[in-house]
Amino acid sequence: MIVILKPHPDKERVQRLIQRIENMGLSINYSEGSSTTILGLMGDTSAIDVTDLEVFDIVERVQRITEPFKAVNRKMHPQDTIVEVAGRKIGAGYFNVFAGPCSVENEEQILMVAESVRKAGASFLRGGAFKPRTSPYSFQGLEAEGLKLLLSAKRQTGMPIVTEIMSEKHLDLFADVDIIQLGARNMQNFMLLKELGRSNKPILLKRGLSATIEEFLMAAEYIFAGGNTNVMFCERGIRTFETIIRNNLDISAVPLLKTLSHLPVIIDPSHAAGRRDMVAPLSRSAIAAGADGLMIEVHNDPKRALCDGAQSLNLPQFDEVMADVTRRALFEGRTLQS
Ligand code: PEP
Ligand code: MN
Fold first, then answer.
1. Can you give the pLDDT at residue 46?
2. Is 266 in the pocket of ligand 1 (CB under 6 A)?
3. Which residues are CB-contacts of 324 (< 8 A; sequence separation ≥ 6)?
């Protein structure tokens, strides 16, 4: 439920109204725009009588949110949310590129890729330490050791890092990670979603392999429900009948998510297709569709990569894509962060 206030409401009266709502056992999501102020009511509002709130003279109108996603709903927060991480802004026209290898393999590799993508203009270093692999016999990531190498690359290059968590038991290890990635395979791991909701870490939430847009929104709602409002969506391709590419990039997810929600939307063109030749065209389509950033896999020697080599760009290829992305993002009026 949202309570839309009349323009320029008296602050004291707003406070009294908030108090009244909180006394009903609800919490408030306060959203002040240039022309409207909205109080989003969080919790079970089914027993509330709308007229009890409409009697307040600062109230313009009261509206129930009928969709199951409430806090992440754009009705709750009409302005784009900007997630701020390590001095970089993400969303509302601020554009970021997260780049790095699928998995951290050794010190030399992660440092070489980090230095190179930083110079090319990426604002975040990505790299998996805990890898969700289809086969138990495939490389599983360097785990805690991989996180150490990533943190060391962060110290040496000054780049903030994003890396995937696979279990809530590992949260302590992620204390110095800037953005925690929740991977596609865990999008509906509800225990993990709840734990991330209780943490104050920015979360990059990847869309499940076969998740609907509503399920994707509801996963973000879980994190919000726990109190963590630093969430970004990442569309990374979904399963379809097509087999010639790894996944199908659902480009319509960008305008859809942006209409339905206020949160930033990132596109991962690497997992979307599973082929490096598709990264540049899909990146272009992401920018045109309104994405707030890209997550791109880059490796110093893709042929020898322990994971996802076929979709990884080498260092010069990333330089080229980054130059193209920069030009196009600026043309589309975005502000590039580095
Ligand atoms: C990854 O980013 O390397 C990854 C495993 O992504 P996804 O969860 O989208 O498959
Ligand atoms: Mn990968």
1. 87
2. no
3. 280, 283, 284
